[in-house]
Write a structure and sequence with these properties.
mainly alpha
Length: 110
């Protein structure tokens, strides 16, 4: 699955749709992305992560992203399911990296 994930497409979609997708979806995507970058994350977990991220960046999915209020719900479900499987690899460092990026896009959370 790693072969179908494209990092450039991931960053393009994330920056383009961050405002519409919302902080929660972006946070989960970033947690997964940064967890996959860790050298101690096992291959099986990276496969799960890249599968969920590949689904996120696909231009065609179950619920098109342009549909108001529902467009990103399938993406969030996919990311949440992946997080459930690989949560142990989402450590404090991963969350700090994501928080830094989130703050640059959304400002400080309350």
């Amino acid at each position: 699955m790693e072969q179908t994930f494209n990092e450039r497409s991931f960053w393009q979609k994330l920056t383009r749709f961050a405002g519409r997708a919302g902080r929660e979806l972006v946070e989960k995507a970033l947690w997964l992305f940064y967890a996959a970058q860790r050298p101690d994350t096992p291959r099986w977990a990276k496969t799960v992560i890249y599968g969920a991220l590949a689904y996120f960046i696909l231009p065609f999915d179950a619920i098109p992203d342009f549909i108001p209020a529902a467009g990103f719900s399938d993406d969030l479900t996919s990311l949440a399911a992946a997080l459930g499987l690989v949560a142990i690899y989402v450590n404090d460092d991963v969350k700090a990296q994501a928080a830094s990026k989130l703050e640059s896009w959304f400002g400080r959370s309350h």
